[in-house]
TrEMBL record:
<dbReference type="GO" id="GO:0016779">
    <property type="term" value="F:nucleotidyltransferase activity"/>
</dbReference>
<dbReference type="InterPro" id="IPR027417">
    <property type="entry name" value="P-loop_NTPase"/>
</dbReference>
<dbReference type="GO" id="GO:0043752">
    <property type="term" value="F:adenosylcobinamide kinase activity"/>
</dbReference>
<dbReference type="GO" id="GO:0000166">
    <property type="term" value="F:nucleotide binding"/>
</dbReference>
<dbReference type="InterPro" id="IPR003203">
    <property type="entry name" value="CobU/CobP"/>
</dbReference>
<dbReference type="Pfam" id="PF02283">
    <property type="entry name" value="CobU"/>
</dbReference>
<protein>
    <submittedName>
        <fullName>Bifunctional adenosylcobinamide kinase/adenosylcobinamide-phosphate guanylyltransferase</fullName>
    </submittedName>
</protein>
<keyword id="KW-0418">Kinase</keyword>
<dbReference type="GO" id="GO:0009236">
    <property type="term" value="P:cobalamin biosynthetic process"/>
</dbReference>
<keyword id="KW-0808">Transferase</keyword>
<keyword id="KW-0548">Nucleotidyltransferase</keyword>
């Protein structure tokens, strides 16, 4: 599994599509669809809509999935307690995914910074 993180609008999806040679039709927006598609984009959005749900057996079913997640833990701490809970959940999930990932990259201004992993893109 490859985990790509970065701020909103920083080019994560374009980067993943370029690296994999895939197109928009290959992108899932939820863990169920990601079982059969190579890219899962919008992890943070899915977590907001499904708090506490987790990813189930996604990584066992599709161990080569590329997961994209906006960084939501930077910046001003939200006043709304539910927003803080969401940020915490996304952050903890990304930490768990990073532990399991063969490669983790941060995308900033369309440029990649490898945080973990020597293995290249397949």
């Amino acid at each position: 599994m490859i985990l790509l993180i970065g701020g909103a609008g920083q080019g994560k999806l374009a980067y993943a599509l370029e690296k994999t040679g895939l197109g928009e039709a290959d992108v899932a927006r939820d863990p169920v669809s990601a079982r059969t598609r190579p890219i899962f984009a919008g992890l943070e959005t899915w977590v907001r809509a499904h708090p506490g749900a987790g990813l189930g057996d996604l990584l066992e079913v599709n161990p080569d999935v590329v997961i994209l997640c906006d960084e939501v833990g930077c910046g001003v701490v939200p006043v709304d307690p539910s927003e803080r809970v969401w940020r915490e959940e996304v952050g903890r999930l990304c930490c768990a995914l990073a532990q399991k990932a063969g490669r983790v990259e941060r995308i900033f201004c369309g440029l990649s910074m490898v945080l973990k992993g020597e293995e290249g893109w397949k």
